From TrEMBL:
Protein name from the UniProt record: Trehalase
Family affiliation: Belongs to the glycosyl hydrolase 37 family.
Origin organism lineage: Eukaryota, Viridiplantae, Chlorophyta, core chlorophytes, Chlorodendrophyceae
Bias kind Basic and acidic residues: ranges: 77-91
Organism: Tetraselmis sp. GSL018
Reaction it catalyzes: alpha,alpha-trehalose + H2O = alpha-D-glucose + beta-D-glucose
Length: 97
């Protein structure tokens, strides 16, 4: 997270266009609940802010009836071609569209 601003989907370069699901804050919370280690919260805060900023940088605005528009974080891959690790499956799926 400190290096890329998000948790990459894997360790290969082609995974840098997408992240793992936004679960880091929940994982930090669960570890804190289990350990009571407040130092973990202080140490994790910067990474949590980076990840949060990553997911909000390309957001959409939505409004519920009678409500003000609010930003909605989007979880998606920034990629317009078949994934290298699933090329055949992606080409087959796109041919059905």
């Amino acid at each position: 997270v400190r290096e890329h601003g998000f948790m990459p989907n894997g360790s290969r370069a082609y995974y840098l266009n997408r992240s793992q699901p936004p679960m880091l804050s929940r994982m930090v919370r669960e570890v804190h609940r289990a350990t009571g280690d407040d130092g973990l919260l202080r140490e994790a805060l910067a990474a949590l802010r980076l990840e949060h900023r990553y997911f909000l940088r390309k957001h959409v605005r939505v409004a519920l009836p009678g409500g003000e528009p609010r930003p909605l974080a989007r979880y998606l891959a920034e990629w317009d071609r078949p994934r290298p690790e699933s090329h055949r499956e992606d080409v087959e799926t796109s041919s059905l569209a």
